[in-house]
Amino acid sequence: MKLQRMRVEQLRQFRKPFVLDNLQPGLNLIHGPNESGKSTLVRAIRAAFFERYRSTAIDDLRPWGDSAAAPTIELDFEHENRSWRLTKSFLQRKRCDLAVGTETYSEDDAEEKLAELLGYQYPKRGASKAEHWGIPGLLWVEQGTGQDIEQAIEHAGDHLKSALNSMVGEVASSGGDDLIETVRSQRDTLLTGTGKPRGDYLQLEKDRARYEAEIEELKERVHKYQEQVDRLGKLAHDYDQTEAERPWEEAQRQLEEARTRYQQVERLEQQQAQEKATLSQLQRNQGLLQQNREHLAGLSRQLEERKAQLERAERDLSLAQAQTPAVTGRLTEARTAYEQAEKQRKLAGLLQTRERLKQDVRRLEQHKQVLTQNLAKAKEYHQQLEQARQQARENRIDSALVKRLRATGSQLNEETIRSRTIATRLSWQLDAGASLTLNNESLTGQGEQQLLEESALVIPGVGTLGITPGGEELASTRRKLKALEQNLEEQLKALGVTSVEQAEDRLSAYDSAERTLKHAEELFKSVAPAGLEQLVSEQSEAEIELENVRKQLEATPTPDPKQNVPALEQAETAFTQAGTALDKTESDERAHQSRLSALTQARDSAQTEWQRLADEEKSPERLQQLQQISTELANIEKQQAELEASLERREREIREARPDFLKQDIERYQNAANHLRQTQENRGRELRDIRVRLEAWGAEGLEEQLNEKEAELDQCNRRYQELHRRAEALDLLLTLLTEKRQALTRRLQAPLQKHFNHYLSVLFPEASLEVDEQLRPGTFSRGNELGQITELSFGAREQMGLISRLAYADLLREAGRPTLVILDDTLVHSDSERLEDMKRILFDAASRHQILLFTCHPGNWNDLGVPPIDLQSLKVNAVAQA
Amino acid sequence: MPKFLHTADWQMGRAFTRFETEDGAALVEARFEAIEKLAQLANEHQCDAVLVAGDVFDAQTVSDRTIRRVFNATKGFTGPWVMLPGNHDAALAESVWTRAQRLGAVPGNVHLALQPGVINLEPQHLSVLCAPLTQRHTYGDLTEPFTGYESPEGYLRIGLAHGSVQGLLPEEIDSTNPIAPDRAEASRLDYLALGDWHGTKQINERTWYSGTPEPERFRNNEAGNALIVEVSGAGAPPTVTPLQTGRYQWHQWRESLAVQSDLEQLLERLDALPESAVVDLRLEGSITLAGEETLLKALSVAEAKFRSLRCERSGLQLAPTDEDIAALKADGYVGEVVESLRERQGEAQDDTARDALAILAGLLREREQEAGQ
Predict the structure, then answer these.
(1) CA of A824, closest CA in chain B: separation in Å?
(2) What ipTM does this complex have?
(3) Distance from B145 to chain A by nearest Cα, in Å?
């Protein structure tokens, strides 16, 4: 396939028609700067083939802002020596026309023709995507995807294989893949991906299990039914046989027999018990009789005993009696001693009383004397007291008043003295008998007077001299004196005295009288504290008492001084001793008396006893009794012997009958009969139960059900087997078909590998690249390096990618398929050396394929050996032409 | 001249496996019809009695409906029927018989020989000496007491028993329920009517197995008959006439196919069978794909025609010829798969490979047919 010319119009930036022609069969280098339309042209080629003309999902083709545009692409190419022209318009004018030589196709036919030619498919709806691109997707490399070889190969997949059919010729199968799909879908209705049953097959498997379980259950039930039937048969047989034999009747008969025998034994035992009772009565009787006989036989012996007792009693009594006089003598002595002691004690007491009375007399006389003296003194003191009291009464004066008086007196004295000092002193010396009258006072002799006041001194005869004392204080002193004198006068008057000295005397006399009074009172009190009268009465009392005591003394007999009278204490002790001795003697005497009487009584009763026995021993009844008892005893012994023999006999009889076993027999036979009957009844019950059960079960028709279920299982099983075999067959078929197809793929490996090696040897002389079963470049090895393509650097991967695509192109070409290689700005990551190699490769490939290489780096490619096509200038020319 | 009908092994209540549900039901139904047919024959031949020598029922616990239907089916013949319990329906303590009696299903003219002994049919002057099985299996000869059984003067002594005549029947030499081969002679029987063997079989002059009246298995042993027995007088040899009673004939064919003509012959024979056939085919050998196509078509026709047709082809190898493969247009790797399957089938007798090949051929054929249209 060789693209010769392309024309675009109303497509992205190519609003006006743009034509790229003169494309060469080999390498074509188309360059231009960015946005010059390189990618648009690539896109146009893709759209012309991949996009449905009626697609609405291709808005990107529309020139910017031109809604009325009908993007149109026209491609002229040559293939298999025929000219092909494809004209495709989108959006506003949807059309597709294909002219191949003289044939024309349009619309869908045209598109299908193209898809078949190149090996790709259309999208069901929307824009075409990588997975639809098929072989062109592998050979037309978009910018920057050169390295993504795997994806492209996968998408090319079936197209590749069918495209390569001619190469592998007979091994490919027409419609083989459809067949595989059919087989797979049929297999998948029966098996899951992992080979497990599904759908009907699975259901049948489950049904089968269910039937088997049901059958198992039915079989189990049938088995149970049969067991029950067998049980019924056996039971019925046993029941009838037992009913005929009636074994419990035999047991019953044996039971009756045992009972009868046991009753006999019981009767024997009863008799035995009776006889034993009789025997023991006899034995008791015998005992009594023997006792009686012994009693009677013992009388004589008793009599002797009694006799001895009597004698002993009499001896004891006489012994006691003999002691009596001694006892009595001792008593009399004790009594005499006691009386003597008593007399002594009395005497001693009397003596002592007298002594005391004498002392009392002496004391009382002394007392009386003291009292008499005291009384005399008291009277005297009393008199003194009265005198003192009289004195005091007479001189009674108030001491405080006296004191004031004294003070007033002394004050007056002081004033007087002062007045004198200041007073006019008048001294006189008169010739004897001359007299003067001073202030009416006659003055004779010699004297002196103080004058305080105006005074008149009458000299008789002479006349009168007036004297007036001078001094300033004289008046006041005179007044004060006057007041004091007046005061003193008043006080004296109040005290009843004439002078201060008198007052002082009286006070002293009063004090002295008081003191005397006190003294006399104290004296009086010392002798008569309770008063005089009391003293007097005391004295008379003492006199009376004394009189009494004297009288007592006189009344007290005077003991005989000759008699030796002991002291009272001594007499008392002797008396007490004599009393104790007497008490003892008396009690001894009483004990003796009671012993005597007891002995007497003992002797009497012994006497009586002895007498009674002596009488009895001799009585004739006793002899008769003895006789009788002997006879009875003999009788009893005889009976006893008989009874014992009988008892022993019967005992043996009973023992031989084995009553314990008989009892057990009864129980055993009873149980046996019961059990036998019970067993039979149980059998009957079980029979009924089983019959009822079997009737119910029988009505279910178990075995018939089982038969039917088995038939169903059989059918199910058959159907299952069919499906099972079919599933296995389909599985096998699918496996085989898949395997064979894979083997076919593997057959393509070799030629592809050859082409790979061709290119690789240019790039890496030492390296090898293995093509895997999926026809993908796989393991890459270079020297010691070993790895996957994907592990290489981006640049190397891109180079490998290109090599792979070229190898595929070679393979396709060999298969007679169209090969057009379009490279959009590829190998930009290759270094110059590697790029050089790649250029060699491209040049080589271009000898077999048409290659369109779009680039914006024309400098990189100027040694490619082909004239570059400058897109920019083409566009300018186009405009110019327009 | 006394005349009676001898039958046995009705096996009522049996369900048929290995058949489609519908076919199984029809076969069951046919067994009821067989009883009616017996009654009808008894009337037609003016029989004095019908003697059933055991295994009336296939099991003890069949449904009440089955019990009632069995006795209902005897209504056509109003003369005496004597039914003997066999090993399938032994007279156990509780049995299908006791249930039938409880249900009140047993008509007055049907005598159940539930105990060993003699049933005297007075008007017919027949003494039927019965040896019923009262256990599922016995190891002693139950007919031995026949010798001791007395029969009224002038009555025919007819033995009725169920078991294996010792030493005569193949495969069952050591089987249970033995019967002495000279029983008829030893016990002075005029005739000994036996059951248990499902084909009609004469043991000696006076001893016969009647077989089952309606076949129920493929083993070809003269099943589907009843015997009319006529004895002119006590001691006289009986005249035994087998009458066909079976409705369906069971055919089991094991064929080995090698060449085309084998197939053609088989199809001819198949075509010749009556519609009442129950066919079980087992094919072995090998067949071409074209041959198999022919066979499948023929089987499809036969399935519709016969009561039942089953064909087991797993032993039949597919041997596609070059023409077959060319016709299938199995080119490329599909052709390789066909070849591989053919080899596997041949080498390892691999059924799966055979089936896979058949499926593949079918798919390819379909594809060709589609392409041809």
Answers:
(1) 39
(2) 0.80
(3) 21
